[in-house]
Amino acid sequence: MSDSMTLEAREAETQDDWRANLREIGAAEGFYEELGPDHTALFVKRGKQLIVSFENLDHVYERGADRMPWGYGFVEKQGWSMLGMMAGDWSWYRDEAVFDFFDRLRDEGFFEQFDRVVFYGASMGGYGAAVFSAAAPGCQVVAISPQATLDREIAPWESRYYRAWRRDFSGRYAYAPDMCGEAEAVHIFYDPRHKEDAMHATLFRGENVVKYRCRFLGHRIASLWIQMGLLKPIVAECVAGTMTQAKFYQWMRARRENRRFQKEMLHLLQKERRWGLLIRYCEAILARRSAPHFRNAMREARKEIKGN
Fold first, then answer.
1. CA separation (Å) from 104 to 46, 95, 175?
2. Structural domain range at position 35
3. Using 50, 70 and 90 to split pLDDT, how confident is the model at 175?
4. 61 pLDDT band (50/70/90 cuts)?
5. What is the pLDDT of residue 4?
6. Are residues 270 and 206 in the same domain?
7. Is residue 18 over pLDDT 90?
8. Which of 66, 83, 126, 151 could bridge to 169 as Cys pair (CB 3.0-4.6 Å)?
9. Residue 91 and residue 134 in one domain
């Protein structure tokens, strides 16, 4: 057997073991369902608050041995219930089996057993959170860098996700800004300097939409929040219904001490050739810590100024 075949066999075995583990958890504490070939749902019942999370299985597999949906341990410690929606492909959840699943939960009154329901997701998951919130009127939505749609007629400027262009973005649960109209609050987090994300955010309108501008954080906002220790507190505030823009922007001041953020700022200043500002920024960083990369960047910026 070739190495590639061995690897494929191991991955298949691992996925089988993983699904068997989820089935066991679902049978004991809620339910587990496979929705067609590409999607799975795990429900774990705890308290009267429910988190509905959306993500790609690639992200689940990055988490190591337990390979549970995002926030499983955190949600469990809070005593909240959880419905983890996982996609095995970059599908944007465009699957009739997923539509039927949420229709069934809505019609059976599944969401009505909870005092508060929060739909959470980032990027593709943010689209899923916004779209399927239609099944639970009165819920909260936490959408980080979400897409409004990938319909080529509506968003022809969106060129990042060509793998999803073959998907049908019409019919049920399609256009995210329309689907979250009955949510109590829709929290949209995005970087206004990121062109495509800002254009998607513009399409979300309505009195229940609250937008949080995460300048200089790029598309992968959630991963930076994890480094800053902010992702879980932000979700907790949304679950409690106490999230405000003032509180959020106060928290965001912590990004100035994050090393990834500092490097992103440095690259931006280099790209925009703002040498004077870059030198002052490097001086501020070097006053707080040893950073050879910033010292070298400052030296190159001074050469650029002299050369001009």
1. 21, 14, 20
2. 3-255
3. very high
4. very low
5. 55
6. no
7. no
8. 151
9. yes
Provide the residue type at 292 as one letter: P
Nearest alpha carbon to residue 69 among 37, 46, 44, 47: 44
Is residue 257's pLDDT more than 60?
A: yes
Both 199 and 134 in a single domain? yes
Same domain, 83 and 146: yes
What predicted TM-score, i.e. pTM, was given to this entire model? 0.84
- Please identify, among 255, 274, 297, the residue that sits at the C-terminal boundary of a domain: 255
Domain count, the chain: 2
- Position 63 confidence tier, pLDDT thresholds 50, 70, 90: very low
Same domain, 225 and 279: no
Give CA–CA dist 140/184, Å, rounded.
Answer: 6
